[in-house]
Design brief:
Order of helices and strands: HHHEEHEEHHEEEEEEEEEE
Bound molecules: fe (ii) ion
Strand content: 15-25%
Number of strands: 14
Strand order of the largest sheet: 1-14-2-3-4-5
Shape: globular
CATH topology of the largest domain: Purple Acid Phosphatase, chain A, domain 2
Number of helices: 6
Distance between the termini: 56 Å
Number of domains: 2
């Protein structure tokens, strides 16, 4: 049974959504007819129906750009713009037009650094080529990537080779020194925390120079202190995908940090942590109060 569900996952998902929508419609209708206090239940069922439809049909398409401005020194002489995208999950629920749109948007943000934070695929490499439009995106200080946990479940060697062939530099467990207008930034990227061998704390050539760490998962920050890095950027969580205001994610967050670092800007171990909601979906194609996100970080150095 489990195997059958896995094989026909999309159809099972669609059937479950249709059944849930039909159930909510029935409840709304019957309680509306009953009148009186039952109208409260009718109203709640209607709201549930609306949110269900929104999360399936509109939520995944509402691409957002989230901007942060992080000063790593007291008086920055330059601002380096890092554009970070992760969790593409080609082969899942997105078509080629979506990835074309992502690449176009990334270019329009005029990056100094373009970083692809992993989870290029899900279940197969068949649609990895949908990400090829990123081959054309330019970034003044370079284009870099690391793999994510889903990539290790497929063929990490082939995925690495493909992304490299688009002109991106694999920065796994290595660092690079970037400069803009005579001001320097050290960037180190970590291997995947679940299936790779991340070197934590990351390499830092000089404690004097500002330093950022980028990884697929946010978990590496738990084994670091504020001496190891000034800013940590990660994806992986998808923000939980289905969220409610105030309550947050309705689903468990697949990381050790859990809800402490599900999305947005956090402070862990004295380190500023930015967690992206990602651009795709892995297990189910729904997003509620958690749109796909491109992260733009202006780093003051
Ligand atoms: Fe992911």
């Amino acid at each position: 049974m489990k195997e059958w569900i896995e094989r026909h996952y999309e159809r099972v998902f669609d059937a479950a959504i249709i059944l849930l929508a039909a159930f909510l419609t029935l409840i709304a209708y019957l309680t509306y007819r009953a009148g009186g206090y039952w109208m409260v239940l009718s109203f709640l069922s209607s709201v549930g129906l609306f949110m269900l439809a929104h999360s399936i049909f509109f939520g995944p398409k509402r691409l957002t750009v989230t901007r942060y401005r992080e000063r790593l020194v007291h008086h920055p002489g330059a601002w380096i713009r890092v554009v970070f995208l992760s969790d593409f999950h080609t082969g899942g629920f997105r078509d080629a037009d979506w990835y074309e749109r992502l690449a176009h948007e990334a270019q329009s943000l005029d990056p100094d650094v373009l970083f692809l934070g992993g989870d290029f695929c899900v279940d197969s490499l068949q649609h990895l080529d949908h990400l090829r439009p990123f081959e054309r995106v330019t970034a003044r200080l370079g284009r870099y990537f690391v793999l994510g946990n889903h990539d290790f479940l497929e063929d990490p060697v082939a995925i690495r080779d493909t992304v490299r062939s688009w002109g991106f530099v694999d920065l796994t467990n290595s660092g690079i020194s970037l400069s803009k207008e005579g001001h320097y930034l050290q960037l180190t990227a970590l291997d995947d925390h679940l299936f790779g061998s991340p070197i934590v704390p990351p390499f830092r050539a000089s404690a004097e120079l500002p330093h950022i760490t980028i990884a697929h998962e946010p978990d590496g920050v738990m084994d670091m202190s504020s001496k190891d890095t000034d800013l940590y950027i990660a994806g992986h969580t998808h923000g939980g995908q289905v969220r409610l205001p105030v309550i947050g994610s309705l689903l468990p967050i697949p990381s050790k940090l859990g809800r402490r670092a599900d999305c947005g800007r956090k402070m862990i171990n004295g380190i500023r942590l930015l967690v992206s909601q990602g651009t795709g979906e892995a297990d189910f194609r729904a997003r509620l109060f958690c749109p796909p996100e491109i992260m733009v970080v202006e780093v003051g150095v």
